[in-house]
Predict the 3D structure of the following.
Amino acid sequence: MTRFIAPDAERLARTLVDARIPEAEHSFIAGSWLEGEGEPFEVRTPITGDSLAWLRPASPSQVTRAAASAKEAQPAWAAMKARDRARMLEHAAELMVADLDRLATLVALDNGKTYSGARGDVLGCAEFLRSAAGWATRLFGATLPTGGDVEAMTWIEPVGVVGVVMPFNAPLIFCGMKIAPALATGNTVVAKAPEQAPLAVVEFVRCLEQAGVPPGVVNLVHGGASVGSQIIDAPQVTMVTFTGSSTVGALVGAQATRQLKKVLLELGGKSANIVYEDAPFDAAVAGSATAIFRNAGQRCFSGSRLLVQESIAEAFIAKLVETAEGIAVGDPFHPQTQVACLVSRDDVERVQAIVDDAVSAGAHLLCGGTAAAVQGAFYRPTILEIPSGVNCSALTEETFGPVLVVQRFTDADDAIAMANDSEYGLAGGCWTSNLATAMRTARKVNTGFFWINGYGASGGTEATIGGRGASGIGTEKGLEGIREYTVVKTVVLPAGLESVATEI
């Protein structure tokens, strides 16, 4: 049975003080901090369910004002020297690192991930700010070899006003992946924080303000789906970037593209992690556990489908179950905790329903399968083996929880076919000692990101990630991710006016 580390009430009380959660003025419009005008909603920590803060969603008129402010500020921000924009982003990164412990505490309270994971989010966000700052001065067009007396060139220009709708699982990371590149390339932003975990985004915007970003360049509002919809519909918004479920992403994409707005959608996944019989056994066991159980499975690219070659399946699955049962679940601030919370108690119930449905359909529950505590949003690391012919949502749909489904395969062709038997195409991985097998699998599995012998290993801030199929449209991170926030203009310059054709 998984070890549960109960939250320490005294330590939790201290962290609430250390986090210095603002009591009011959580929204930022046109350079001013203020409250929304909608009905207040409560933000609770998933650690205990206790209240963290009360926020007010933006009213339609506030969303309109935020979009108008961004529109008004955009020309001057785009005209600013790229190096000056870069300095502000670098300064914001420095401010985040200087406030690392408090921000990490706030992240852990806000969405329930382990304190060590929260520190990684703060540092990762700072790195994305620095990356965007570097690209701000390195985006360039090209001259085109037209020949004759005509010069042609391409210019890289900002899209305009970017509407940003972020997920709850890593708000600071997505601030760095979305807001930072938008600003670096000369755009302005209207952002909606995730209503389940909005507090860290408030602090990110404060860092930008303190770094000298001018009024109107970044605007932050709060609320649910209706506020997000108002941002998408705002006529000043020319691009929408969204990360979340594929179901909601399809609605966001349809709404935006009906208005001919550019979209960047990073959506769900049901990624396959393939273990071949010649895999480095112990590393593959540890890596497969990390692939699904890190951040309690709340990662879009989690290795939530494990495919194991039949010849090693019994031994591998047994060792993996032993590993899962040895994971310490509980208090995010305890140094021994490896897996902390889901984002809410409602999500515990949602995951439980998925597991129960799978077992009813014929899946074998190998470990876990229950909440880890009566209070808080803790769920035990769970492994389900799915026999051939059993169909259930746990196998085909994103669970977004610490639930691993295991299937067996015979050979590489079988594994590749099983990996591709999904509407998603976000990530994947394989474990093998054979380079040819690894490269062939990486080539044949239809994903935007693929790991070999290291599922979940960081590729760094420049390693582009983007989904295929139901996993989204467009790319984030690196040069390709930066260019998503730009448009290309072609400029043609005749050698002299006398050479311009006058005939139609």
The mean pLDDT is 96. The CA atoms of residues 86 and 243 lie 25 Å apart.
